[in-house]
Amino acid sequence: MKDIEHVTDIHAHFIYGVDDGARTLEESLELIKMATEQGVKKIIATPHTMPELTSTEIAKKLNIIKAKVREANIDCELYTGQEIFYSEKAIEYLKSGRYLTLADSKYILVEFDPGISYGYIKMATRDIIFAGFLPVFAHVERYQCLQKNHRLDTIRDMGAMFQMNYTSIDGGIFNKNTVMCKNMIKNGYISFMATDMHRVGEREPKVTKALLWISKNASKYFEELTYENADNIITRRMD
């Protein structure tokens, strides 16, 4: 496999007790450990936007996890973020600080209903950018309306970027969704690969198989998919 400096993950639900991700502090640490054993060295925490969840609670629990990571000598840097389910209130909440951007950048990880209309996605993209934020579509492979008629090109030209889950390319040659995802990577549509990790035993961080495929079949995009673009968000070079 192509040599890598490290992997940076921009989509992960490892903060315990805030959404459908990790349930306990111990599970948070186990997920992080599992990821680092596969080469992940930086992770942006992206809990779902939940009605009672505040940015203060996210930061507080992340600091607890960071302390435990240091105690356990786990080699991993952690950053705040959120997976934002887009709604009419999303921009207002971003501006007020109730919702978090990725690593305090202008980029946001934004999620839509898989069956959302193309018109709605165009409107949301335009409104997000007009408000001064830059959208990264979480698991873009799930949005059926973007899978035809060069619609990915249109949304990308508007200023959006696309994230794909590593496990989406783990299927075989007869898996239509896997074939579609691999083609999206080879055609240069994807800017970030991410784990979208949730729980031990259920949506664990799994990157090794996908990294091998990307290394062999889309090597010219390997660095930017696995760490360069993500690191540039963290260091603000993409702002």
From TrEMBL:
Signal peptide: none annotated. Keywords: Hydrolase, Protein phosphatase. It catalyses: O-phospho-L-tyrosyl-[protein] + H2O = L-tyrosyl-[protein] + phosphate. GO terms for molecular function: manganese ion binding; protein tyrosine phosphatase activity. It comes from the Bacteria. Gene3D superfamilies: Metal-dependent hydrolases. InterPro entries: Caps_polysacc_synth_CpsB/CapC, Pol/histidinol_Pase-like. Its EC number is 3.1.3.48. Pfam families: CpsB_CapC (PF19567). Belongs to the metallo-dependent hydrolases superfamily. CpsB/CapC family. This is protein-tyrosine-phosphatase. It comes from Lachnoanaerobaculum saburreum F0468.
